[in-house]
Amino acid sequence: MLRTAKFIVCDNEHGTGDVTFPDLDESSFDVKNYLVYPTGTKTADLRRAAKKAGWSVVDGGDYCAMCTEGGV
């Protein structure tokens, strides 16, 4: 079985993949579970969930909740 997963990467100074949505840090998110049971296969579903988690899109760039709070 092939499975495709979509992640959003923060475009601020940690745009190298350090901060993603869903979080790739194994301590806070089960990546295997996400790959087997994705919460949404559409980009719109992922963006909707990210927005609920505090992420924002400004001028086409994605920003994590921490950057959004800082006034990006």
Topology:
Layout: E1 8-9, E2 20-21, H1 31-36, H2 43-52, E3 56-58, E4 61-63, H3 65-69
Antiparallel strand pairs: 1-2, 3-4
Summarize the structure.
By secondary structure, this protein is α+β, with helices and mostly antiparallel strands. The chain has one domain. The chain has 3 helices and 4 strands, in the order ββααββα.
Describe the structure in your own words:
By secondary structure, this protein is of the alpha+beta class. It has one domain. It has a two-stranded antiparallel ribbon with strand order 1-2. It has a two-stranded antiparallel sheet with strand order 3-4. A hairpin with a 2-residue loop joins strand 3 and strand 4. The longest helix has 10 residues. The mean pLDDT is 78.
Number of domains: 1
Strand order of the largest sheet: 1-2
End-to-end separation: 40 Å
Question: How large is the count of helical segments?
Answer: 3
Determine the structural class based on helices, strands and strand pairing.
alpha+beta
What is the strand content? 5-15%
How many E-type strands?
4
Mean pLDDT over the full residue set: 78
Q: Globular, elongated, flat, extended or rod-shaped: what is the shape?
A: globular
Which spans have pLDDT < 50 for at least 5 consecutive residues? none
Which range best describes the helical content: under 10%, 10-25%, 25-40%, 40-55%, 55-70% or over 70%? Answer: 25-40%
Order of helices and strands: EEHHEEH
Largest sheet: 2 strands, antiparallel
Computed CA radius of gyration, to the nearest angstrom:
12 Å
